[in-house]
Each structure stands twice: as structure tokens, then as C-alpha cells.
Amino acid sequence: MEGDEEKFVTPGEVLGKATELKAGKGAYVSADDRTVYASLTGFRSLTPPPEGSDDPRPTVEVKGHKAHGPVPEPGLVVIARVTKVMAKMASADIMCVGPKSVREKFTGIIRQQDVRATEIDKVDMHASFRPGDIVRALVLSLGDARAYYLSTAKNELGVVSAESQAGATMIPISWTEMQCPLTGQVEQRKVAKAGA
Amino acid sequence: MEYVNPEGLRLDGRRPMEMRQLRAEIGVVSKADGSAVFEMGNTKVIAAVYGPREVQNRSQQSNDQALVRCEYSMANFSTGDRMRKPKGDRRSTEISLVIRQTMEACILTHLMPRSQIDIFVQVLQADGGTRSACINAATLALADAGIPMCDLVTSCSAGYLNGTPLLDLNYVEDSAGGPDVTVGILPKLDKVTLLQMDSKLQVDTFENVMQLAIEGCKAVASYIREILLENTKQLESRRGVK
């Protein structure tokens, strides 16, 4: 059947010696650092070592069949919905990590100093975000026990979509303003650069 | 009472070193992250695994490893007479603890800090060897959930009646009052993670009985591996891979 050239392994099966292979995802090295075993059920695959690294060993990985939901990592761009706006920070629920949507929601915080790159002490949170706004943000770090730390301090980060007070989806007109198509009212937000 | 007749057959027609028929199915509880049904003869057990997910009780959260919780219960209809209190009694609490310790030894908990893994096992039909069937079902469910483990854990029980070591006791043989040795091993790493015994045995006889149980565990391990391979092949073909 398909895929039999890649060996099917179950947890505990020997994949090779630690001197010849590096343990990737789905594999682990035994306590005495000699053997590489599988830790998941699936098909094993070998990837050659990356260019220019001094480690000549290929990496062995076991690809399981269960796809777990993505988890935010520092340096990734996420899409979040703002839930609370306070004087010095805004709370947001992270809904997508990169192109994939998450299985269970994660909480993120955008602090006043991370909203934009210039004049960070003069930021007015209520003129940057409102509850219900969809923002594109960058994960700065794992943060504290309660939430990830997010940042919108780049041109392409910030509010992507927002509803006006009249209930219509607003159109961005500059990096600080969005306009409601129904009433013509202009509202202040930290807007993300469209396109790209 | 004669548990092994002069021809060498047990009450249900098995030979002393013969295990009961094994049957397993994966993915039976769609809401759970991993689930399995495991049958050893007439003993039927269902296991469901949820996790890794966020810890519900913040005070128990651990910064460097995952929290493993296990709950064992017997359905009211699992035994001959309808059970009055299937959960929370001493036997269930003890077995929950035993299963949790056994599975915790093989899950790579340091890969999932600040998270929780819940294992729920329920006995649907009890005919001896429920503890072993539960551990086997939990292993399958954890493998189905894709939780990284250092090895599969398999378990089997053995006893000693009428001067003969018997593999995989059923309820009648278990209630005979003789010794009942339950062993749980990591088959590829060749390590013992669970060893329990009721009643008394001479040390050399004990070694024979334990060795027999370990052979039973290895047979269960090869069956579990077959089931996992079949399941993975089915999933790959459904996804249209290659």
C-alpha cells in the first residue's frame, strides 16, 4: 500500500543510533544518549542536515496522523479579536496563527508601548483599538501565566477590520483613521497597511 | 474445585499458557482527542483521552511538565449483579492511581509543560483482568491522540491454580482466591512499569508466573502494533496520501 517505503513505527521502536541521527519531532534520545527511539505512531522520515551546519547527521522525524491545533510562538504573526481596552493595554483573543485557525483560544495582551513604533508614551489605547476589532499582531513572547504579549508596532500590523458605531464594516483611509461607509463618520484606530 | 482438568484444559477450554481473544478498535469516541475499545475475552473496556489541554485547576499546574489525570469507573451493568456505587469506592480509586502512575511513566510529560492530559477508562463488561485491559486501552487511546510516549505500555495478568501457572485469568479463576499477578511492561525498552500481586506465592513460583505474564504482555504489544498500523493505513488512504 502507499507509503510503505517509509517505515511505519510505534512508540518505543528504535530509529537508529544517536551518533548517526538527530532526534526531530516525534522522536527522542534515550537517557544514556545512545539510541534514538520513536515517541509517536506514524511514518518515519529522514531530512538531510541543513546547509552550512557543522552537524553532519540527518534528522529523523515521525509524522503522526493527528493534527494538533497550532500554538502561538514568538515571532509568528497572529490574527486576534480585541476583547477589552484599558488605559495601558488591550486584551485580545488569538484566533489564527499564520494561516491556520486555533483549536482552543489563547489570550494575548497588547501593551501601550507595543502599539506603534513612534511616540510610544503618547499612545491613546481607545484611539487605537475598540472591543470587537480584528487585529493582525506579532507575538513578542510567551508573556506571563495569563496571556501572550503581542505587538502591532509595524506598518503591516494593526486593525484589519472593524465595525463602526453604526454597525457597518469600516474602510481604512490612513494609518490612524477608518471611515464608516454608511454614515461617513471617521473613527480613530491603529490601522494595518492593506495589501501584501 | 478443579480449575485445570487432567487433560490440561481450563474451565473455558483454554490451555494454561493461552491468552483470551484480543480485539481492539481506535477512534470510537469522536469528541475525545484519542479513544479506544479493548476486549480481552469477555472483558470489555473503553478509554478516552483528552489533551494536552489547558490545566483546569491552576493550583495543580506544573511549570516543567504536563499533569496526567486518570479516572477508572465500572459501568453499573458491567458485572453480574448491578453495581450500586461504580465510582469513588476504594477499589476504583486505587486502580485509577495505578493506571495514572503507569501511564505517567511512559508519557514524555516534559514536552508539554503547563498542560493537562485526562485519561478516562470505563469498564463495560467485567470478566477478570479489567486492570490490564484498562492499561492496554489507555495506551491505544494515547497513541491515537498523538501524545508522545517513550514506548507502548502493555499489561497482562497471570495466576497459579492447581499447581499450574495460568495466563490471563477470567473472573471465575480470579475469584478462586489464588494468587493474581498483574504486570505492565514497556515492550521495546524491556522495562517493568507495573507489578501487583494478590495473595501469596513462593518466590521461585512467583518468578515463573511473572515471566508468563510478561510473555502475555509481549503478545498484547504485537497485537496493539498491528492495530495501530492498520488504523494509520486506513487514515492515510482516506486522506488520499500518495
From TrEMBL, chain A:
Recorded GO MF terms: RNA binding
UniProt cross-references to SUPFAM superfamilies, sorted A to Z: Nucleic acid-binding proteins (SSF50249), Ribosomal L27 protein-like (SSF110324)
Domain Exosome complex component N-terminal residue range list: 8-45
Keyword Cytoplasm: yes
The Exosome complex component CSL4 C-terminal domain, residue ranges: 101-142
The keyword Cytoplasm is assigned to this record: yes
Compartments it resides in: Nucleus, Nucleolus
Broad class of where this protein is predominantly found: nucleus
Region (Disordered) location: 42-68
GO cellular component, one term: nucleolus
Biased composition (Basic and acidic residues): 54-64
BP terms from Gene Ontology: RNA processing
InterPro entries membership: Csl4, EXOSC1_C, Exosome_cplx_N_dom, NA-bd_OB-fold
Pfam families in the cross-refs: ECR1_N, EXOSC1
Key words, A-Z: Cytoplasm, Exosome
Protein name: Exosome complex component CSL4
From TrEMBL, chain B:
UniProt KW keywords: Cytoplasm, Exosome
Pfam families listed in its UniProt record: RNase_PH, RNase_PH_C
Main localization (coarse): cytoplasm
GO molecular function, one term: RNA binding
Gene Ontology CC terms, in alphabetical order: cytoplasmic exosome (RNase complex); nuclear exosome (RNase complex); nucleolus
Localisation: Cytoplasm; Nucleus, Nucleolus
All residue ranges annotated as the Exoribonuclease phosphorolytic domain in the record: 18-148, 151-216
Biological process terms in GO annotation: nuclear mRNA surveillance; poly(A)-dependent snoRNA 3'-end processing; rRNA catabolic process; U4 snRNA 3'-end processing
Family per record: Belongs to the RNase PH family.
PANTHER family per the UniProt record, alphabetical: EXOSOME COMPLEX COMPONENT, EXOSOME COMPLEX COMPONENT RRP41
This protein's name: Exosome complex component RRP41
Organism of origin: Sesamum alatum
Organismal lineage: Eukaryota, Viridiplantae, Streptophyta, Embryophyta, Tracheophyta
